[in-house]
Amino acid sequence: MRVAIAGAGAVGRSIAGELLENGHEVLLIDKAPTAISVERVPQAEWLLADACEITSLDEAALQRCNVVIAATGDDKVNLVVSLLAKTEYGVPRVVARVNNPKNEWLFNESWGVDVAVSTPRLMSALVEEAVSVGDLVRLLRFSHGDANLVELTLPEESALAGTQVGDVEWPEDTSLVTIIRGTRVLTPSREDSLEPGDELLFVAAQAREEQLEDLLSVRREDAPEA
User: Where is each RCK N-terminal domain found (predicted)?
Assistant: First the structure.
């Protein structure tokens, strides 16, 4: 897979290193000569250019990329790079870094963004995820389909504790993708049971999040006798 990363700062270089270790082809683009540190990521391709300019992206052969990552520290730049990558070069997957949470509303399919990653919000979500049991925590937003990656740690008092995955009537537009149980990562099957303390990861439509949280967190009381 060929990946272009706009922004060769600490974030861009770190992403590049991870992708290269996984066998991908990576191009780092930055307009600042001081950011071009080939010795730090020698396996990557490097391009000294302004990623907001069509001529630069032509030189980068963006049309050959499977993924473009807009990882600069400037939200305006990341939006422009995302829009050009999607509309001018038809890049299948565009991931954009959000530096200011107030700008999150802009990072959607109208600007060519498939996945928006807000560092401040993600850090906040990870703190919540570490200390919250029974509360739905939003980890990541996907622009297409208005879906989110959400997590909930199943509390002991949940009505679904001990229930098999296949016996649960999940809300519409919701998919259980992973169960984390201790050090194990489980791909859910219909026969797997839900156990207290399980970390459950879902891809869910935003409109279904409250319904999903209610389903997992609240133990239904028996109806009072007439």
Answer: 1-117
Residues whose CB is less than 8 angstroms from the CB of residue 159 and which lie 6 or more positions away in sequence, other chains included: 215, 218, 219, 220
Give the list of residues 6+ apart from residue 112 with CB closer than 8 angstroms, or none: 82, 83, 84, 85, 86, 87, 94
The one-letter amino acid at 106: L
Decide: 188 and 178 in contact? Cβ < 8 Å.
yes
Question: Could you give the CA distance from residue 42 to residue 35 in angstroms, rounded to a whole number?
Answer: 13
- Non-local CB neighbours of 20 within 8 Å, separated by 6+ positions: 26, 41, 43, 44
153 touches 126 (CB < 8 A): no
3-state DSSP: the chain helix, strand, coil percent, rounded to 5?
35, 25, 40
- Rounded to whole angstroms, how far apart are CA atoms 160 and 219? 8
What domains appear along the chain, each with residue ranges and CATH number? 1-116 (3.40.50.720), 131-214 (3.30.70.1450)
Give CA separation, 29 vs 33, 60, 153, in Å: 11, 8, 40
Burial class (CB in 10 A: 0-12, 13-18, 19+), 8: buried
